[in-house]
Design brief:
mainly alpha, two-stranded antiparallel sheet, single chain, 10 helices, 2 domains, 72% helix
């Protein structure tokens, strides 16, 4: 076990334990990333509620097929909804059009309500598909898949290092916080608390800088030349081609339904 606890390896592996359980997790990560991006680009162009409902059904089907735990997955979806709920509530009262109902002196329009429903359907469909297709790829594999898709290496390295050391910073934060508690620190709405939190954040930055320098020196000693090597390369198999073909047909069907029913 790592000196920082089991959470570090959990962050590194992410959803790796699901890789052999469902057809979604056995699909080539590159195909899943491209499929998720194309699905998002397709869904945000839809206007028909028939097409948007179909897209939401696809997202739900992917969530079930990926074998994700229902409670934690829906919690993530609701967390995303909480970021846009204020906008959804305000749209009916700020969009001009036919007045549908009144809330006090405010007038809600039918066009605003429909636009709010449309945005909610788009957001939930895209998030569900992303969670199923990309959220089930462990962080290291996702980084290598992005590298194979010719994403700039600096961005890939930044993502891999961020995922690796977010939990290390978390452990460092808890260590400093426990030290403050051992000294009978009790947070409150006063200048001493603000000063102590400032010192805590400053120490985290200093220790992070020192740790990064040690890590860089260790990596250079091991011959790091700016590249991460994957022992087993990706192989685009028959099931990946079938998945890509079916996914392309679904996207075309979405666009066609939006064209005929929009």
């Amino acid at each position: 076990m790592s000196q920082y606890g089991p959470n570090v390896s959990n962050v590194m592996r992410a959803r790796g334990a699901l890789d052999t359980q469902t057809w979604v997790n056995r699909t080539d990560p590159r195909a899943r990333v491209i499929a998720a991006v194309l699905f998002a680009c397709c869904v945000i162009t839809l206007d028909s509620f028939y097409a948007l409902g179909f897209a939401l059904a696809i997202g739900l089907f992917l969530l079930v097929s990926a074998g994700l735990p229902a409670a934690s997955t829906m919690k993530k979806v609701l967390t995303m909804d909480s970021f846009i709920i204020f906008m959804l509530f305000m749209l009916p009262f700020t969009t001009p059009g036919e007045v549908w109902f009144h809330v006090g002196s405010w007038e809600a329009t039918k066009e605003g309500v429909l636009k709010a429903v449309e945005i909610a359907l788009i957001a939930n469909a895209v998030v569900m598909a992303m969670l199923a297709l990309v959220g089930t790829i462990d962080a290291i594999t996702l980084g290598h898949a992005l590298n194979r898709l010719r994403v700039p290496e600096n961005l890939v390295h930044l993502m891999l290092f961020s995922v690796r050391y977010i939990d290390v910073l978390k452990v460092e934060y808890f260590r400093l916080r426990n030290a403050m508690r051992a000294r009978c620190f009790k947070p409150g709405n006063n200048l001493h608390t603000y000063r102590s939190i400032g010192y805590l954040l400053g120490m985290m930055l200093v220790r992070s800088l020192e740790r990064s320098e040690r890590i860089l020196a260790a990596m250079k000693c091991r011959g790091f030349n700016g590249k991460f090597y994957l022992i087993s390369n990706f192989h685009f198999q028959k099931r990946d081609r079938i998945f890509s073909l079916i996914w392309l047909c679904l996207l075309l069907l979405l666009l066609a339904s939006d064209y005929f029913y929009g």
